[in-house]
Write a structure and sequence with these properties.
single chain; Kinase; mainly alpha
């Protein structure tokens, strides 16, 4: 979470912080040196949709 701007973290809810963290991990996986280790664009899109779905469900609770 060190890469996230402190201004974004300030006042963020637990769900928002978890979402930032999940997106950060996804971004790091996209930077893998070996092509075979990186997710496909389809996998990235599916993961983003999943993260948004979970975040939305938790925000409603």
């Amino acid at each position: 979470m060190d890469a996230v701007d402190p201004a974004l973290k300030e006042g963020a809810s637990r769900v928002e912080l978890e979402t930032m963290k999940a997106l950060g991990f996804l971004a790091v996986s996209c930077l893998e040196e070996r092509r075979q280790s990186r997710p496909s664009m389809k996998e990235v899109a599916e993961e983003i949709e999943y993260i948004i779905t979970i975040a939305t469900a938790k925000a409603i609770e």
